[in-house]
Specification:
With about 240 residues, the chain is α/β, with parallel strands linked by helices. The protein contains nine helices and eight strands. It has a single domain, classed as Vaccinia Virus protein VP39 (Rossmann fold, 3-Layer(aba) Sandwich). It is globular, with a radius of gyration of 17 Å. The structure holds S-adenosylmethionine (SAM). The site of S-adenosylmethionine (SAM) has 18 residues, from helix 1.
């Protein structure tokens, strides 16, 4: 089992490599993922105001979308990879919106003052953070009382099936270390830190291959299965 520094250096190397990859296929991927992101941003529209921070933003395309939708908000995009976040300019051009700041930092060590943020969000990134407890501790420090943190579109599973589910996601995408958010662990951390936590499963079949499409169709037909089988989910933490 690699340690955190090793895992993070693999993640950083992936971004260095991606910089030289086909921009058009990246664009096409992110436009498909926008079909996942947009309904979530719309559903939670009322939460996007004041000071907003994205963690694990990659190249910051989702922050650019948020800034376009909420020009009056202060939007800060952050990612562990300087190479990734340095690429935000092209997304700002596409979405015709300029974020207020971009930071390269780890999710559990963000150079912003205590109680300075109203909303923290990440999009399909929190399952990469490794140090979940430390990250939510940092989230608690950064949020104003009543502030909200949303981990959107995250692979999740129950503890009993985690080893098998983790093996599968790493088998599917071996180039970058992958994990899932374990429901019981996230609830325990949230409870220990005094967050109110809500988990909403997402069974969309958009952008899924044939096998995954059938799997998510079955989950949407029998929603109680989402509680037992690996499923994409949104995690909403509210600081009391
Ligand atoms: C699957 S990518 C998603 C990126 C972006 N949200 C998107 O949708 O394109 C996960 C991102 O998390 C970042 N990351 C991994 N560990 C991190 C950490 N501890 N703190 C901040 N960012 C991290 C990676 O560099 C990567 O950009």
């Amino acid at each position: 089992m690699a340690n955190i520094e090793e895992l993070q250096s693999i993640e950083l190397a992936v971004w260095d490599k991606l910089q030289h990859e086909d921009w058009l296929s990246n664009l096409s991927n992110k436009f498909s993922e926008l079909r996942w992101l947009l309904p979530k941003l719309t559903a939670h529209e009322g939460k996007f105001h004041g000071s907003i921070l994205e963690l694990g933003a990659g190249e910051g395309w989702a922050s650019s979308v948020v800034k376009r939708m909420h020009p009056e908000a202060l939007v800060i995009a952050s990612d562990i990879s300087p190479a990734a976040i340095g690429g935000i300019g092209k997304w700002e051009k596409i979405f015709e919106a300029k974020v207020d700041a971009q930071i390269s930092c780890r999710s559990y060590s963000v150079p912003l003052p205590d109680s300075s943020v109203d909303l923290i969000f990440s999009f399909q990134a929190a399952h990469h953070f490794i140090l979940q407890k430390e990250t939510l501790h940092e989230v608690k420090r950064l949020l104003r009382p009543g502030g909200i943190c949303m981990y959107l579109h995250e692979p999740s599973c129950r503890e009993y099936i985690h080893p098998a589910a983790k093996w599968r996601v790493n088998h599917k995408r071996p180039e970058c270390p992958e994990d899932l958010l374990v429901i019981e662990r996230m609830k325990r951390i949230a409870q220990d830190l005094g967050f109110n936590i809500q988990i909403a499963y997402s069974t969309t079949t958009l952008n899924r291959g044939v096998v995954e499409g059938v799997y998510y169709k079955a989950l949407s037909a029998f929603p109680f299965l989402c509680d037992w089988l690996p499923c994409t989910a949104d995690f909403i933490f509210t600081k009391q």
